[in-house]
Predict the structure.
Amino acid sequence: MKCEHCDKPAVVHETIIKSGIDTEVHLCAEHAIAAGYPLPLEQPIADIFPQLAAVAKVEGASTKERSSKCHACGLTFASFRKTAMLGCATCYDAFMPMIEQVIERAQVGATHHLGRSPKGGAEVERTQLLRAKLMRDLESAVATEQYERAAKIRDELKALDTTLP
Amino acid sequence: MTIPFSAALSQIGPDSDVVVTSRVRIARNISGFPFICRASNAVRLEIMRVVKRAVDRPALSSPSDRGLQWIDLQAVPSRERVLLAERHLVSRHFANSEGPRALALSHDEHASVMVNEEDHLRIQYLCAGSRLPDAFAAAFALECGLAETTQFAFHSRWGYLTACPTNVGSGIRLSAMLHLPAVQIMGEVERIKRAARELHLAVRGYYGEGSESAGDFFQFSNQQTLGSSEDALLADFHGNVLPRLISYERDARAAALERHRNRLEDLVFRARANLSAARLLTAATATRDLSRMRLGAVLGMLPINLARLQRLLLQVQPAHLSMVDPRAADGEEVEREVRATFVRQELAQSSTDQE
């Protein structure tokens, strides 16, 4: 199939559904880049191609929201838009209005999980927070070469495992 | 690392004429750890320690499967990592990427856990033929076993949290690798891809995400992971979607036989002739012609055993070929020569197959 703007072969094929009407888009590499589509050429890019498409379409976020940052892991929203990957569980709440859009778009409008859930929800969350803190401490201990402290934190992490049922 | 030759890809199962393999993958992240893109090597090692501890528990290994073997990918040479990818036990990306990561693999190679791929854990069950309900049950049995000592990141609204928010919810990916040569011959591939998209399915090639379809093999999987229970997803995919895809291919085969029998036979017998005569053979050509022979076998044109063809399709891939004959790693020309010789020998032996 040819690109709709020139005679080169189309490499990007998209179906855009707007107000219930399907419009097909076929673009060559050059015109696809110009139109802001990621190219399905190399594996890692193609890997996340559908996700990137969902992420790239985030609209309506204010400038403040777009420049926001996750307080837990430091990931910026700009970086998320580039890779489609979140940095930690807290990112889901940190980027809430935009994440909601991305998920609903990718999940055919579904807004809530209806499947299985782990046993002991509150306990999970408490340990989740404690482990996150210990991991941050461990990182900084290693970064500042405080190896004794790091070893202690590792022991605490191990103890955290053994308290589990 | 010992890799026994019992890969699901070289076996056959229910509806094997169309369905090569069934696979269930479950994405999980361990609560409290950053996701992979923000995880330092120290964090990734800690994740590996937590998972290994869960994997090593005796409760996880029933007497029949003797537990999971632990493969540290950083300690494995590149050829063997590619071998794992060729068997669909790890993604190509996982095989070739860097950093601490591991694979826990059952001895029959059906159950596996990729550790530190896109998510902390990708729990997988892969088996031959159309056996999604079995794969589903086995994958969740493994997930439950791991959950006994590992807490997975979970959100009251979004469910199981994944590094990419589009996989959130159940985190489950059901997929089937289908052999659709007749759909291809009848020029219906684009139509079936479009129908799949309307059903919110992803269609990928032989090597999964981002790969070209080789030899008319296509992998179909669910896109939606949120808003349906896991059982509802399975019921829809296995009970509704898959039978339709299977009968579409079978109908196309019947139609092709009726209308273009000569063209079909030409393709199948030329493929066998090519493979029986070639002195230099690329992986792509071998895959294409073996795929055509596979069609000939299921239509009863060729007296060759399907399991043997399935195994051959795997053995002509570069890393597998160099296991058969190490000279295959000595350069492109030698590799092609080794492949051609190997395929000729195998096909000569197959003449004694009793179908």
User: Anything to note?
Assistant: Chain B touches chain A through 54 residues (CB under 8 Å).
